[in-house]
Model the fold of this input.
Amino acid sequence: MNREIREVPLEERFDFGSNWSKFLSKISEEQIVEATGSLLARFPEGLSGSNFLDIGCGSGLFSLAAKKLGASVVSFDFDPKSVGCARQLKQRFYPEDDSWQICQASVLDATAMDGLGKFDVVYCWGVLHHTGDMWSAMENAVARVASGGKLFLAIYNDQGGYSELWRVVKKNICEIA
Done:
């Protein structure tokens, strides 16, 4: 495939990191248990011995949940504030654990993605459609799944005027919070 990749620059993206910072300032044990339960529903045996890639980790909540279920975790996000949030959770719950790595990276950087290796679980929830090149991002995410591994992916659907309304609502909520 030979198409030009256009990554949306950080300054043109929604400031997810600020939202995640606000979320972390109020995160409850119940929310952590709920996120862990969500993964446990898909992996009733837990994730012990598995490696878990969290693409666009945001707050780091699902990386934390994967750690709690026994996985080795690699978390990354394009947004430096989101990376900071994930590091904050790691520091709070697993400060000395080398089996949870966190970095700033782009799913569109094929070289960086190749350097990560393959994973038993690749988790990417509500992220790829924000990159500016969803299809290349999806190819790079799929390529990280090990043979016999699982990909958990969510993509938001553009619903025209309804989606535009939600964009305005989210923007106003963030400015109020």
